[in-house]
Specification:
mainly alpha, elongated, 2 domains, 221 residues
Length: 221
């Protein structure tokens, strides 16, 4: 009797162990599937954000980063075709996505500063002669949203709009026949590269007419 009960207990324990093992396997697989699902979702959002940024601006990811993105897509498709997401695969894809996003954001940062810094400096340079100074600040603040793009469409839209508004403000000043020369001078001022040699008679007259002579600082390098 006791032996029978003991045997039955052993059988029950084995069944419980198998159930627990199956449960652990299921939980582990669910975890892998969740990681994979998040990777696919984030990758989709990332690719769409990059595509939009390239269509709305002159930003472009490097060939190396592009190959990494394509590699991630291929690895994801291969994982789906195998029908079962292994833990090693899920972790690899997750790590690769983080690396790619970091690379893209760095490339975006380089592009942003190349495009935005000089434009913002230009706006600050002409702020004193702009008819509506508050518009200069509005445009600058919108452009600055691009610094924290983070794949967000709203930040991209604001930056794009800010750059357009900046050009409209600059063009609205009506520099006349000497516009290109004056604009070139202001760009040099904005980038800190203007020198005395750049002060042509036309530019000097323009500065005097717009009461800007006292706002122009001169310094030695």
């Amino acid at each position: 009797m006791l032996v029978d009960l003991l045997d039955q207990s052993i059988i029950d324990m084995k069944e419980i162990y198998e159930l627990e093992k199956t449960s652990n396997d299921v939980q582990k697989q669910e975890k892998n599937d969740k990681i994979f699902s998040n990777v696919v979702s984030e990758n989709h959002l990332m690719v769409r954000a990059v595509t939009n940024s390239m269509s709305q601006s002159e930003f472009a990811i490097s060939q190396e980063t592009r190959e990494h993105v394509l590699g991630l897509l291929k690895s994801s498709n291969d994982a789906v075709s195998r029908g079962l997401i292994q833990e090693s695969t899920a972790n690899y894809l997750q790590k690769e996505l983080i690396t790619i996003k970091k690379a893209i954001l760095q490339e975006w940062s380089d592009y942003y500063h190349r495009v935005a810094d000089q434009k913002i400096n230009m706006l600050q340079t002409i702020k004193g002669i702009a008819p509506e100074r508050e518009k200069v600040d509005y445009a600058s603040n919108k452009i600055k949203c691009g610094a924290s793009w983070e794949f967000k469409q709203d930040n991209l839209d604001k930056m794009t709009k800010g750059l357009l508004e900046a050009d409209e403000i600059i063009n609205s000043l009506g520099f006349g026949d000497d516009g290109l020369e004056i604009l070139g001078f202001l760009k040099k001022v904005a980038s800190g590269k203007a020198s005395v040699h750049d002060l042509t008679p036309d530019i000097l007259n323009w500065l005097i007419e717009n009461n800007m002579t006292s706002k122009l600082a001169v310094s030695f390098k």
